[in-house]
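Input set for joint prediction.
Command: fold jointly, output tokens.
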Amino acid sequence: MSADLSLLSDEELLEKTGLEVVPLTKDVGAEVLGVDLSSKLDKPTFETIRRAWLEHGVLVIRNQSIDPDAFVAFSTRFGELDNAPVMENGRAFVDGYPELFVISNVVKNGLRIGSLGARELEWHTDMAYVDEPPMASCLYAVEVPEGEGKTGFLNMYKAYAKLPAALKDQIAGKAIKHDSVYTLDGYLREGGGRTLEHVKALGCFDVQKLPGAWHPAVRTHPETGQEALYIGRRQNTCVEGLNLRESEELLDAIWKYINRIGKRTYHHEWQAGDVVIWDNRCIMHRRDAFPSASRRVMHRTQMQGSRPI
Ligand code: SIN
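tokens >
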């Protein structure tokens, strides 16, 4: 008869599985050692990984050599997968695997094989613009330029806990609107390459009227019960009950604070074969720009989530 894993402490599970979980910084992230994702994980091994992920928000598993089936199988252990999101060039996914989003700047035969190019991606949470944003996202580094295009991770429980009291008061009980029209790198979703700047120049841009989703500015994590700041991304958001000027001022003040604390957090330097999984309910991430002549190919899965409360 198999043991009830919920009865085992974290230490007992680590001893049973032989895994090591090594924190990467004081606030966020841990590296898991001793895992091979190319074969099916047994229940104790997966439970150890799941607990470490809930505790540290981001897990790094290095030196993996996995095919699309293995990557999908590992990701599915956390929950059902979404399909790749719609970007300005449609859905970019691995042939035969609609759930494997390709993030890449590589151009092949004149066509971009993936999305999100080589530009900086500012701090954000994946797909806060839908009613039920993905619970988690997982990246697998297929091909990466050495030392370039690092991905940063920020703990939003800590960000909320340390948010200046005056800002906490101003967002208490309020929702934030997350626009669904523009991609993170400023393009109209499926907009034939038109950018946000283009639309602003036409004078027909009003963030309060854009379609999108409203979510509480402070959400409670459904599994850990902790409160986290949930602000999506800076561009094209607005705060409930404020006029545009007041909303911009408040968001600017919050994001100034985020950019300040974000400098002190975990920034992952990629090697091919790295798998990194994070919890979108309590983590924001960002990516540094890298030279467009460098080749970077990542596969990403995202696990379905529920409406933030
Ligand atoms: C993302 O925002 O999911 C992309 C991160 C990256 O390219 O490192």
